[in-house]
Design goal:
Blueprint lengths: L2 E7 L3 H10 L5 E7 L17 E3 L12 H13 L7 E6 L2 E3 L3 H10 L4 E2 L2 E3 L8 H5 L11 H11 L13 E3 L3 E4 H13 L1 H8 L8 H7 L7 E2 L3 E3 L17 H6 L4 E3 L7 H11 L5
Length: about 280
């Protein structure tokens, strides 16, 4: 089994390098999508590392906009032509492993065929997110007064409905681990359904819905498991998860997840030291 890790990055090459080093494994390749707005120069040396590649077609990524989806799609298109990959693991440069690269490999290999992507329904468990879908959001527009226009649009137009019948809207996290088949299916689906792409263009934080919704409403549904990434949403502010520190380490390790999000070397460098020490210890 071979795994391609697709890392979406936009800053801090030193932190990204620590993440790459933590994922070093003979069965892993690492693909880095760097935000098009970011100067690539400080990141170029990372592609000199073994099994590390820079995604050539870069998307401009803005928080809660469609750019994150396009960045992931660009990564898929760079990875899937190589038939060697069984899985694509999509993470952020602000994620970090909680276990060794070997244990990551073993966990995925032992659950081969599973799709690790959280799918919470906006009709029950994730009701708080419903208006992000049912109302119009002009997050991708770059015009003066767009927020005022957004209010006017939502005052006079009906709530939005998904363009395909029988689809259940789900989501939660845009960080996931998918089989080659699921990633291929996703690209094929959006290629056949441009109306779905147009629908998500007006969803706030559409990256947290589109991948999960497409797969949940497909034959892959029975293979879906929870995401492998630990996130702490307590005290969240406008959709951002809490930045984790070394004080959170016990909860992170007790979660049973393989990765933690969101971490920042400028906030707590010691957390990285502790995690690196843990993941390099010999297996019992």
């Amino acid at each position: 089994m071979r795994i391609a890790h697709l890392i979406l990055a936009h800053k801090n090459p030193a932190q990204l390098e620590r993440l790459i080093d933590a994922l070093a494994h003979p069965s892993f390749d690492i693909y880095i999508h760097l935000d098009k707005k970011t100067d690539i120069t400080p990141f170029r040396h990372l592609a000199e590392k073994q099994n590390v590649f820079l995604v050539a077609h870069r998307a401009s990524v803005r928080w809660a906009g469609y750019g994150t989806i396009q960045a992931t799609i660009n990564g898929f298109r760079a990875i899937l032509p190589n038939p060697a990959y069984d899985y694509i693991n999509v993470i952020s440069a602000q994620d970090f492993p909680l276990v060794s690269a070997e244990n990551i490999y073993r966990h995925i290999a032992e659950n081969q065929g599973a799709e690790f992507i959280t799918c919470e329904s906006i009709e029950d468990k994730w009701r708080i997110a419903a208006t992000r879908v049912t109302r119009y959001h002009l997050i991708n527009w770059r015009i003066p007064g767009k927020f005022r226009l957004e209010k006017l649009v939502n005052r006079f137009l009906r709530h939005r409905k998904f363009p395909l019948e029988g689809f259940k809207m789900v989501g939660r996290s845009n960080w996931f681990t998918l089989t080659r088949g699921a990633a291929t299916y996703f690209l094929d689906f959006i290629g056949r359904h441009p109306e779905v792409v147009r629908f998500f263009w007006y969803v706030w934080g559409a990256d947290e819905f589109i991948f999960a919704t497409v797969l949940y409403n497909s034959s892959f549904r029975d293979n879906i498991r929870e995401s492998l990434v630990y996130v702490d949403w307590t005290g969240q502010t406008e959709g951002h998860p809490r930045v984790l520190t070394s004080k959170d380490l016990p909860e992170m390790l007790a979660s049973g997840k393989l990765f933690a999000r969101k971490v920042d070397m400028d906030v707590d460098r010691r957390l990285f030291d502790l995690l690196e020490e843990r993941i390099t210890l010999p297996s019992p």
